[in-house]
Design a protein that fits this description.
The radius of gyration is 16 Å and the shape is globular. The strands form four sheets. Strands 5-9-7-8 form a four-stranded antiparallel β-sheet, with no helix packed on it. It has a three-stranded antiparallel β-sheet with strand order 1-6-11, with no helix packed on it. A two-stranded antiparallel sheet has the order 2-10. By secondary structure, the protein is an alpha+beta fold. Helix content is 22%, strand content 24%. It has four helices and eleven strands; from the N terminus they run E-E-H-H-E-E-E-H-E-E-E-H-E-E-E. The longest helix has 13 residues. Helix 1 runs antiparallel to helix 2.
Length: 169
């Protein structure tokens, strides 16, 4: 299973990459792009495994459940994020030719081909994120929620009309 934070401002029944939102819902695009303030260069990052598309052409999913994410925040002694409500997306409904992964290895992000084995997250794979969250707490900075967690990238939009929610209280 994959997870995507459920947007509070979702219009319709599809998740769209930022480049699509720019034209479909300019107001939502503007709000989402603000999250990259100070990191605008990331928006132009190339993803060679998906036809050399850009960061803004994919939807970012994670195999890390909202329960696991909340536990990492707790272990790092961070206040809980405002919401962990996420769509649960079955990887089998996605076109495999549009999937790639981004994993944290040796102090940096690496793009790797998607493999179903990436859906199983071992505890040691969460340690870089936990260390990052703890550093943010110590420095008094707000963490990027998905920093150093495994990412699954999907080039295109995703129908979430029948996707269940994974709610975490």
């Amino acid at each position: 299973m994959l997870y995507h934070l459920a947007p509070s401002d979702l219009c319709g029944e599809r998740l769209h990459p930022l480049n699509d939102l720019r034209h479909l819902h300019p107001d939502i695009y503007a709000a989402e792009v603000r999250k990259y303030s100070g990191r605008e260069h990331v928006l132009e990052r190339r993803i060679p495994l998906l036809g050399d598309c850009q960061w803004v052409d994919v939807i970012f999913l994670t195999p890390v459940s909202p329960t696991q994410q909340r536990e990492l925040y707790r272990q790092a002694e961070l206040p809980p994020a405002p919401s962990f409500r996420s769509f649960v997306i079955d990887v089998d409904v996605l076109d495999p030719s549009r999937l790639a992964a981004m994993v944290w290895r040796n102090e940096g992000w690496k793009f790797v081909p998607f493999d179903a084995g990436l859906l199983v997250v071992e505890p040691e794979q969460l340690l870089p994120a936990l260390e990052y969250y703890r550093n943010c707490r110590e420095e008094g900075t707000r963490p990027l929620r998905f920093q150093r967690l495994p990412h699954i990238l999907y080039r295109g939009s995703i129908d979430v009309s029948t996707a269940p929610f994974a709610d975490v209280e």
